[in-house]
Amino acid sequence: MNVLLVAGARPNFMKIAPIYRASLACGSVRCSIVHTGQHYDQEMSGTFFEELEIPQPRYSLTCGSGSHAAQTAAVMVAFEDVCLKERPDLVLVVGDVNSTLACSIVAKKCGIEVAHVEAGLRSFDLAMPEEINRMVTDAISDHFFVTEESGTVNLLREGKPAERIHAVGHVMVDNLLHQVACLSRQDQTLLKGFHLKKEASPYLFLTLHRPSNVDCRETFSGIARALNELARNRTIFFPVHPRTAKTMKENGIRLADKVVLLPPLGYREALFLWKDAEAVLTDSGGLQEETTALGVPCVTIRENTERPITVEIGSNVLAGTSPEGILAGLRESLAKKERARVPELWDGHASERIWKVLAGGEGDAIKP
Ligand code: UD1
Fold first, then answer.
1. Residues in the chain, pLDDT under 50
2. Which residue's CA is minimally distant from atom 31 of ligand 1?
3. Is residue 65 classed as helix, strand or coil in its secondary structure?
4. pLDDT tens profile 3-13
5. Which of 6, 45, 65 maximizes ligand 1 atoms within 8 Å of its Cβ, making it the mutation to test the pocket?
6. Residue 188: what pLDDT?
7. What domains can be seen in the chain, in order of their start residue?
């Protein structure tokens, strides 16, 4: 079976890495990585291939940044050439970025089957570009690999056939557990390049990049007020996404000295910091899940989440974006820590289950 495995943006690389590695154990599968180039800076893309132990992509497209339409269109045009040349049996897409949407549309129109990993997640917020990407990708995919029960419920509600929906766990957790095991060998040297030492006293780890949070001056200022309050008595490590760096400057956002601004970090550097944080504050989708998997309290600076399991059984708290909400969210998340659990099947073996389904094993289709 000839499979094209698509990655485009930062959160995709950690998901395709374990899928690629597990494909090597399937004799019948030839899996080729396609990098669309949606993210292109060394620190947003390049570093990941080495540290995630995946080979350089067979196809590196150079689609780059742009408006949603321009970026999606550029990926579609370039990926169509790849599909016509390779004529794969299957295109495997992950997550919910513009590249996920673009490549699934192209594959289907070329008559190629599409498998969506992390299918069925819904925030029910169509103001989020990712929600549109998730819905359209799922509307045309042939195989659905879900990470949590809400994914199955949403897909069944949308009329997807139960035998095409597979609860396999989470490939991002496969990667996370693999990387945690690799860390101890390296951790002393990891942060040297940043002239940074991990603190013994409690600290927070922050990521922020959603357009709804950082493109709007009023919202960003409110979040900054909460951060400056929290930074009165602890350090906050903050790797700054390029979009955020730009809007911080444009909007004149000022953060306290104890908010330590860092460039975007590699996967292991970030993990090394957040795994021992008192709590993580984030508007990312993936970090809500990764913190749940390692039992680190998480405060989600958003009004909704497409990953409700992290709130139901983990210590993730949906705090909204107001300063009061964020401060209360941190208190609540710390209080929930002891009761938090890890979701079913988030055990490091999701990628193997995916190949078992795709490469002809019996699989575990959902019973309606
Ligand atoms: C994209 C995804 C989002 C994901 C995020 C992770 C979509 C719709 N959004 O958002 O779901 O959580 O990636 O990072 O696909 N830029 C650089 N260097 C790069 C890439 C981008 O400087 O290597 C800057 C450019 O100014 C660009 C901006 O970041 O215009 C935004 O990049 P883009 O890929 O459009 O969206 P993200 O905000 O990164």
1. 362-368
2. 243
3. coil
4. 999 999 999 99
5. 65
6. 65
7. 2-169+349-360 (3.40.50.2000), 189-339 (3.40.50.2000)
User: Which mutation among 12, 36, 39 tests ligand 1's pocket best, with the greatest number of atoms within 8 A of CB?
Assistant: 39
Residue ID of nearest Cα to ligand 1 atom 3: 97
Distances (CA, A) of 175 to 8, 72, 268: 17, 27, 11
For 308, residues 6+ apart whose C-beta sits below 8 A from its C-beta are: 148, 150
- What is the pTM for the complete model shown? 0.95
Cβ-proximal residues to 43 (8 Å cutoff; 6+ apart), any chain: 263, 264, 265, 266
Neighbours of 142 (CB within 10 A): 17
Q: What is the ipTM of this complex?
A: 0.96
The DSSP element (H or E) to which 225 belongs, if any, is: helix 217-230
Any atom of ligand 1 within 6 Å of the Cβ of 250 = no
Q: Which residue minimizes the CA distance to atom 37 of ligand 1?
A: 243
Residue pair 260/196 in contact (Cβ under 8 Å)? The answer is: yes
